[in-house]
């Protein structure tokens, strides 16, 4: 009896380890492939069959092309602007909302919260949103990229829950010392909520870094395009003009370098996330867990 | 009598209004803080809801939402009598149901498997790697998919080596749903498992000890302690997922589909996009969007109600 059980245990464990290892490789390999391919010699890459286990030769030509490409550079700059300004605005206003709704002072708090949570389940849809943006003059404006999606309701709930856990007595004693709401929020609540703020910064900045659809339908001026939109032209639409802007290539090398450029831009666009990922991973986990308190 | 009553009524009314003013004055800062938040929700969330009235009008940009002429259910009728209605509704449902059937349980399974790993370093490494694809942008993910699934892509190379003919898999309508759901699992399974792992870590250890004393083996513990322990989390997430049945991964479909695959890939939201923003049929596509939102909302309410009745777990 005992022996048999042990055998099942061993079998299960071995299966589990093998299965999870295969899964992890599947998740990681596509990126590793792109990384290897982005530094491979294009002549060898074209003949390559199947998987890459190491770079074929070595060249930084793809990266050079990418960094000479005005489309990519402008997109990169715009994305940085939208991420920095947008994330700051998002975190600031989410904190305000979280504070207002966690402090039970406001009358009709429930009414406001219902009104806000309702928007998670019902919305006006794409067309009315598009027309509204045109009507209020945000169409093709940089400000749009900051204001649109400024507060994510889910994040607001996380913030409200977390602020609500800070004991009222702290606030009361500060009030006795003459502190007003701004002081309480910025000098007491926020410093005590650093983990949550970190989570908010990360959620919002990744969201804004990866955003493309709203900019696609609401921005017309290429000078305002974020990186993802340029990437879409390079990777999905296969737009040669976008890809090879700023490069002087002969007809035959054009085709060769297109692929290389695609791989390099993937890496360039993903690099910031890959770079900060090890540092942020535990925060993301924390954020999801804080979110799960609310269910 | 009447006049006294009247006076009394007015008095209370006046009193409460003063009270209200007093309260606003007293908590001035809180109300100031509320203003930007309220404005944001009014403009960006409730504004479009108001704009939905154009579903019942013939919207012309010149006349505006208010000035356009009412046409009743014309746009709904023309949608439901079109060839596309059945196609996009069918595709939306099929993709969503397939995704619920396969994509929803995947993170639960992963969490259960990860929970059985006792080597901390191994567990952490697997987690770190499987969370990663979630953070890569949809454009990049779809770019990689296009590259891998293309005629000269890595997957074709492997299948060709195994004796299959080369094909551009993204151009094949029969494969679209499978690719959609499969890549969704690939991208989201790790991140999705976090919430279940959190729920598992919240289970009282005494339950496991009691089960061990009762002679429960590993599998019995999984089925009688772990799964019941995370069931409320599963149910809540399931309700939320069902409430989004009609909103299948719009961004990914937008990036991956093409006229060749519309037959199986075109869903309500992509159809709304094309009708509204490419063909400028604003009212028509707003009506389809409204239909979509209403169905979603009904599904959410239904799932919540059913869950409340059978499991006492619900969103509200």
Automatic annotation (TrEMBL), chain A:
<dbReference type="InterPro" id="IPR000515">
    <property type="entry name" value="MetI-like"/>
</dbReference>
<feature type="transmembrane region" description="Helical">
    <location>
        <begin position="184"/>
        <end position="206"/>
    </location>
</feature>
<dbReference type="GO" id="GO:0005886">
    <property type="term" value="C:plasma membrane"/>
</dbReference>
<keyword id="KW-1003">Cell membrane</keyword>
<keyword id="KW-0472">Membrane</keyword>
<feature type="transmembrane region" description="Helical">
    <location>
        <begin position="260"/>
        <end position="280"/>
    </location>
</feature>
<protein>
    <submittedName>
        <fullName>Carbohydrate ABC transporter permease</fullName>
    </submittedName>
</protein>
<feature type="domain" description="ABC transmembrane type-1">
    <location>
        <begin position="76"/>
        <end position="278"/>
    </location>
</feature>
<dbReference type="InterPro" id="IPR035906">
    <property type="entry name" value="MetI-like_sf"/>
</dbReference>
<keyword id="KW-0813">Transport</keyword>
<feature type="transmembrane region" description="Helical">
    <location>
        <begin position="15"/>
        <end position="37"/>
    </location>
</feature>
<dbReference type="GO" id="GO:0055085">
    <property type="term" value="P:transmembrane transport"/>
</dbReference>
<keyword id="KW-1133">Transmembrane helix</keyword>
<feature type="transmembrane region" description="Helical">
    <location>
        <begin position="79"/>
        <end position="99"/>
    </location>
</feature>
<feature type="transmembrane region" description="Helical">
    <location>
        <begin position="143"/>
        <end position="163"/>
    </location>
</feature>
<comment type="similarity">
    <text>Belongs to the binding-protein-dependent transport system permease family.</text>
</comment>
<feature type="transmembrane region" description="Helical">
    <location>
        <begin position="111"/>
        <end position="131"/>
    </location>
</feature>
<keyword id="KW-0812">Transmembrane</keyword>
<dbReference type="Pfam" id="PF00528">
    <property type="entry name" value="BPD_transp_1"/>
</dbReference>
TrEMBL record, chain B:
<keyword id="KW-1133">Transmembrane helix</keyword>
<dbReference type="GO" id="GO:0005886">
    <property type="term" value="C:plasma membrane"/>
</dbReference>
<feature type="transmembrane region" description="Helical">
    <location>
        <begin position="222"/>
        <end position="240"/>
    </location>
</feature>
<keyword id="KW-0812">Transmembrane</keyword>
<keyword id="KW-0472">Membrane</keyword>
<comment type="similarity">
    <text>Belongs to the binding-protein-dependent transport system permease family.</text>
</comment>
<dbReference type="InterPro" id="IPR050809">
    <property type="entry name" value="UgpAE/MalFG_permease"/>
</dbReference>
<keyword id="KW-0813">Transport</keyword>
<dbReference type="InterPro" id="IPR035906">
    <property type="entry name" value="MetI-like_sf"/>
</dbReference>
<dbReference type="Pfam" id="PF00528">
    <property type="entry name" value="BPD_transp_1"/>
</dbReference>
<protein>
    <submittedName>
        <fullName>Sugar ABC transporter permease</fullName>
    </submittedName>
</protein>
<feature type="transmembrane region" description="Helical">
    <location>
        <begin position="282"/>
        <end position="303"/>
    </location>
</feature>
<keyword id="KW-1003">Cell membrane</keyword>
<dbReference type="InterPro" id="IPR000515">
    <property type="entry name" value="MetI-like"/>
</dbReference>
<feature type="transmembrane region" description="Helical">
    <location>
        <begin position="93"/>
        <end position="114"/>
    </location>
</feature>
<feature type="domain" description="ABC transmembrane type-1">
    <location>
        <begin position="89"/>
        <end position="303"/>
    </location>
</feature>
<dbReference type="GO" id="GO:0055085">
    <property type="term" value="P:transmembrane transport"/>
</dbReference>
<feature type="transmembrane region" description="Helical">
    <location>
        <begin position="30"/>
        <end position="47"/>
    </location>
</feature>
